[in-house]
Amino acid sequence: MSSTPHKGCVRPVSVSKSPLEKHPFKFFADFLIHLFGVLLAILGNLVISISLNIQKYSHLQLAQQEYPRPYFKSMLWWGGVILMALGETGNFAAYGFAPITLIAPLGCMSVTGSAITSVVFLKENLRASDLLGMTLAFAGMYLLVTFAPNITQAISARTVQYYFVGWQFLIYVILEILIFCILLYFLKRKGMKHIVVLLTLVALLASLTVISVKAVSSMITFSMTDKMQLTYPIFYIMFTIMIASCVFQVKFLNQATKLYNTTTVVPVNHIFFTTSAIIAGIIFYQEFLGAAFLTVFIYLFGCFLSFLGVFLVTRNREKEHLQQSYIDFGNIPGKQMLDKIQPDSNNLSYGTLPDGSDSTKSQSGEKKEV
Fold first, then answer.
1. Looking at the DSSP assignment, which residues form a beta bridge with residue 351?
2. String of b and e for 221-231 (b: at least 16 CB within 10 Å)?
3. CA pair distance 100, 148, nearest whole angstrom
4. Cβ neighbours of residue 229 under 8 Å, at least 6 residues apart?
5. How do residues 242-269 score in pLDDT, each as one tens digit?
6. If exposure means fewest CB atoms within 10 Å of the residue's CB, which of 11, 118, 168, 274 is most exposed?
7. Is 347 exposed, middle or buried (0-12, 13-18, 19+ CB in 10 A)?
8. How many C-beta atoms surround the C-beta of residue 238 within 10 A?
9. Residue 351 carries which DSSP code?
């Protein structure tokens, strides 16, 4: 008898296989590409944190000199600038290898890395809240890397054009423009310079920045690996959006740093920037399309841990630098100082001498009469 089945026989139903079982080599290649993007982003953020501390250290060294030179003549300062450029280049290249929702939250590494490098360069103390914040940030980063969308899109110029005219992005851009114009009206006309207003403007611009950075970086990567994409007009449109959004983003961010402490601006800006970048990646590039609810929940929990870690690392850090337990007048010619003067904010005079001399009493009496 023939072993071939008859026409009326029912064939066994084939069981569907997972993507790992169907294409194991492709899955492994995608994993390596994402891992390379993650390493680029982590190294880039660490280099940025080192560069910031080097530039700050160069400013402190110049301030201690008797005849300080301009900072742009310091080789140490230029070394920090070069490292900053290298770190930003690594971040830019990382968007060409991994999704936005994976790269953008890794910006917490620049904050936590700055807390570590400041101990080396600036001789700052490592507080207990810093260690707790770093632990939470690293735990959140692990969850982000593990549960971020594991998709690899070959983003060409035609792909960017397709996403650019999609109805999701058009609605998103219209809403962004409306919110941006309303906030700008309150800022310019009403003088409402609240930190939420300023950093929301920064976040709205940042969403366009990450979309354009991802498009430009991906098209450059696609040009080097497959086919030239730099001849399409969409490349130069995205490049123009990237430059313009970065310039205005820096403008509003500088305005926020002038009005508020860095310890307030850094964690709020990190939260707003990361949230806007994640929303932009989901809407424009559809990076969470088909993801399970548990995966999305754990990913958002990882974002929360990284936000909390950044807050703990930056909390009260600037106040510690501003606190001074005493004011030392040093050696004054013709005057014998027995001790240092302690500031007393509750008294009319700025301070009192420990021996209770009448000089400060007479000064306080004159101030009362005036």
1. 343
2. bbbeeeeebee
3. 10
4. 156, 157, 219, 220, 222, 223, 235
5. 999 999 998 898 888 888 887 788 889 9
6. 11
7. exposed
8. 24
9. E
Token pair recorded at residue 124: 């700052």
CA atoms within 13 A on the CB side of 204: 21
Record the tokens describing residue 315, joined without a space: 């909390």
Q: Could you tell me the two tokens for 72?
A: 């742009």
DSSP 69: P
Instruction: Tell me the HSE value of 288 on the side-chain side, using a 13 A CA sphere.
Output: 19
Could you give the residue ranges of the DSSP H alpha helices within the chain?
19-22, 24-64, 75-94, 100-103, 108-121, 128-147, 157-164, 167-188, 195-225, 233-259, 262-284, 293-314, 317-322, 358-369
Distance CA 286, CA 288 (A): 6
Task: Give the C-alpha separation, 224 to 234, whole Å.
Answer: 17
Both tokens of 28, joined, read 């492994």
Residues in the chain predicted with pLDDT less than 70, given as ranges, are: 1-28, 30, 152-153, 317-370
Residues near 215 by beta carbon (within 8 Å), at least 6 away in sequence: 155, 160, 234, 235, 238
CB 305 within 8 A of CB 132: no
Tokens 């354009």, residue located: 212
Cα(114)–Cα(111) distance, integer angstroms? 5
Q: Which of 105, 140, 146 is nearest to 305 (CA)?
A: 140
DSSP run (H or E) holding 326: none
- Between CA 278 and CA 75 the distance in angstroms is 38
